[in-house]
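Ticket 4471: requesting a sanity check on a complex prediction with N-(5'-phosphopyridoxyl)-D-alanine. Repro inputs:
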Amino acid sequence: MLVYLDGTYLPRAEARVSVDDRGFIFGDGVYEVIRASGGCLFTADEHLARLERGMRGIGIPVHADCARDRLLAIAEHLLRENGLLEGEATVYVQVTRGCAPRTHHFPAPECAPTVYLSAARFTPPVQIRVVGASAITHPDIRWSRCDLKTLNLLPNVLAKQRAVEAGATEAILIRDGVVTEGASTNVFGVVGGELRTYSASNYILAGITRGVVIHLAAELGITVAERPILAEELPHVEELFITGTTTDVLPVVQLDGRPIGDGRPGPITNALGEALARRMGMGLLAHRA
Ligand code: PDD
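Returned structure tokens:
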């Protein structure tokens, strides 16, 4: 597979990053994962806009080599060159502050950011979508700028590992008695007939998929209340689902070993899952036209 690193396309096995890279030393950088189907990137503008917001948010200069149109062209080139114009794929984009002797503060003079992109084949979780997934609850021990999609994913990694050890797909994070999001997804739930998700604040990454799902819900006449689900409400939640670029809409039918609702994907979840699949298809057709 060919990847892109700092201005060069090269085989993945030959790509090398310096041990002085601040991404390696401090997790000092931001990233995105973008979905592609049939060679077309879904909501690429939104992902690249969020990456740029993240760079500005942590003070990485947005030079021409990491401008949105440049990154989009590189992503499309990688899909083409790696034979990913058919079927499903993902593109990974990462920008770090660059290489410099280790100091906690930003290096002076400013260093050139490290820009890395790769593309990979993706197999959608089709089967689990039909029967539904299980999840665990886990304390949300992250910092208070979860809106920045930074490389610092250790709390997410630890939470996801606990989920895997419990035989579950996702860890649903609880902060101050409310559900914030998943380790790598956003969380929606139906409580007393009302569809709810945590509001787009500094305590979650407001996912691009989350935004599309809220929009689709409105089109279907379903109101989404951007209000948190309380941890104490979880035993009474009628439906629960998670969303993300590599997750789509995934029903959660079991939480901490107990069934959600009747233990099967609910009607609102299914309607939104189907609407998202249609929208992804339409987005791609529109792109082709
Ligand atoms: N994760 N919340 C967190 C903490 C995430 O890491 C992600 C995505 C989401 C969903 O965002 P989006 O719909 O924009 O993908 C929510 C990516 C896919 C990852 O880290 O691999």
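Notes from triage: The longest strand covers residues 29-37. Leaving this open until the requester confirms.
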